Amino acid sequence: MEELRTNLAGKKVFSVLDMKDGFHQIPLDDESSYLCTFATPFGRYKYNRLPFGLSSSPEIFQRELERIFGDLEGVQVYFDDLIIAAEDEVTHDKIFSKVMDKASQYNVKFNYSKIQYKVGKVMYLGLIFNEQGVRPDSKQLEAIAKMPNPVNKKELQRFLGLVNYFHSFIPKLSELTNSLRLLLRTNQDWQWTNRQQTAVDQIKLKLINITTLKHFNPKENIVIQTDASNHGIGCALLQNKRPVAFASRSLNNSEKNYSVLEKELLAIVFALNRFHQLVYGHNVLIETDHKPLISIFSKCIHKSTNRIQRLKLKVLKYQFTVKYLPGAQMVLADHLSRSFITENVNDDPDMSDIVHSLTLSEFLSIPDKNLMKIAEETKRDLTLTQVIENINQNWSKFNKKISSNSLLRFYKIREELYVNDDILMCDQKIVVPISLQNYLLSLAHGKAHLGIVKCKQRLRKTYYWPSISQDIEHFVKKCRLCEHYQKSCNNEPLLQHEIPKYPFHKIGIDIAEYAKRNYLIVVDYLSKWLEILPLNNKTITEIVSRLFPVFATHGMPKQIICDNVPFNSSQFRTFCNTHNIQLQFSSPYYAKSNGLAERGVGIAKLIIKKCNNVNEINEALLDYRATPVAGLDYSPSQILMSRLLNTNLPIKQELL
């Protein structure tokens, strides 16, 4: 049907030819004729021509007519009907003449009494086609409108079946049929009330005033409006602000559990797949009233949840741009999503997803008990409770004048908010109740006592609350231990180092001394990975014994940058020469020329000073390695191992 309507765009003159006797015009070969033998009281007979009633007859008939007339431009074949469409009468007559020549050549006969010849509109497949578009036959609609009211479930099913045939022309159909469908439930008693009678009357009125759909024109701009509700998704394909096609369907049980963002994205996937034959290879503008979808398509795919990644992958083959359109202007698709046609989509592998993939405990590396704690505290949080209530009401009852400032902050970002497993989410981040904010701040600050920038980088990947940035700054600034060991930053001369080719290609090493204990510091120049290794003494033998386990894990470096003492000894030089390691010393009068190692030493000393024992040092190293490097969006573990480390601070599982 879509292919037919596409070919009819811009056509003004039409003819329809009906094949006389249909299938009987197709002769059978001897083998096929033998298979069509049947017995009678007068003996056995066999068909010489294609019989009616065989399951394969329609396909054979269609294939033969396509073979005969399929190469003629302006001609469409659908079983025993053949339609000719042209821009003007001259072109029409030329096409008609070619059809007659083909019919004469292959002995195809037409039914003269059913021919519609050179007219401005034609009846074809139960629909009326003309220059403006397509609409159902008014006689058929009037016949349905005059049908008596159903008196049992079987008659109601027949009525809904007839009405649903025209669902593409009525945007609000399923909303009207909702009360009728309730009567079809298995354990539902038959009770015809004023509610059902009103629904039937409104449906019949809609049928009489049905919408005319425009012919699709591949040369015109394509716009698709999509929308989703709690129970269905819908879309409308438009050209020049006129509807070309409508589509909608209900959500299966797993899809009903999707977040608002995922349902809206599912509507886009559904629309592009449903209109595939029309939009594939064309630039499409998709209009949605869900603003967060704009950012979803601007983000890298790996930064999305697993389900959103799968949905985005399904539409990579299409060329489209997503544009935000306020809900008041989304009438067509909005009606469709709330007026969905019930379909069985449980067995559709392209549209169904595994139910358990929705759970936050899988999307985020957070134990269920912690999620339950967040959900419980969310229910106790007065502001978040009001936000969730407004989300459920689509913010329809929200009053700016009497609302608190805390609630107004959420109202400004309402398009990015949704509820998942009783937890408030903001663009894939958990909105943290006020009672848990200090707890998360302490986890982000960690044993490493990270600074403001690093704490922000750690927390804001997974969590959100309106004052998160200010609270992080205040929390770090009031940390007495950080304040005690904070040092003024002096400018150092810039020294250029060649960027290493791979992790642990070039490392810096140094020895730090604190509280009468010595520590060997190892820092990778590429990933900024840091090792703090306790030393029993500062002999080269002890140093080499500590370095070997590091090299066994990460490989031998090609270059080591270090201070002169004690690494300029012949024993350490021999060790480096044996393993083909280039040894480079910093200036003897300016140790900071080994800047990165010195910076690593500075970080290591702060960690050592703020920790009470080796276990706390290792915990601090874990936090450091899982925190993005200054100036980059990646942590040392991501650069070295292509993943984040699992720490006490819960993070997105996809990053692990």
From TrEMBL:
GO terms for molecular function: endonuclease activity; nucleic acid binding; RNA-directed DNA polymerase activity. One of its GO terms (cellular component) is DNA polymerase complex. This is RNA-directed DNA polymerase. SUPFAM superfamilies: DNA/RNA polymerases, Ribonuclease H-like. Signal peptide: none annotated. It comes from Photinus pyralis. Residues 1-129 form the Reverse transcriptase domain. Residues 499-656 form the Integrase catalytic domain. Keywords: Endonuclease, Hydrolase, Nuclease, Nucleotidyltransferase, RNA-directed DNA polymerase, Transferase. Gene3D superfamilies: 1.10.340.70, 3.30.70.270, HIV Type 1 Reverse Transcriptase, subunit A, domain 1, Ribonuclease H-like superfamily/Ribonuclease H. Its EC number is 2.7.7.49. GO terms for biological process: DNA integration.
